[in-house]
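Q: What structure does this chain adopt?
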Amino acid sequence: MSKKIINSNNAPEPIGPYSHSVMVDQMLYVSGQLGIDPSNGQLKTTLEAQTTQAFINLESILNEAGLDFKNVAKTTLFITDMANFAAVNNIYSTYFTSDYPARSCVAVAQLPMDALFEIEVIATK
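A:
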């Protein structure tokens, strides 16, 4: 088994003791991404802005590993209010346009930094 830590300079610094992602053989496990602007470390203020920024951060990590959204096999979404499900889906569908990955969406009581949205993925080469 080969294991490699992959971090991106274009994504915000992790807010805890974890890496952006870990490549194990042909599988990339990406830590949950919030809508944090990497230029200033601040969480975007609206659901739409947070969700879009989280996808931008995710894309930079995937790219650092030589992958893109087509390589994603599984996503897990965390939202703090199921009333935001449709809005999140609208943004999600701009990044995943066909051959959709498997997905879970979970409503949670709270996310780090009081974020409204978080996404984690598993991708494969």
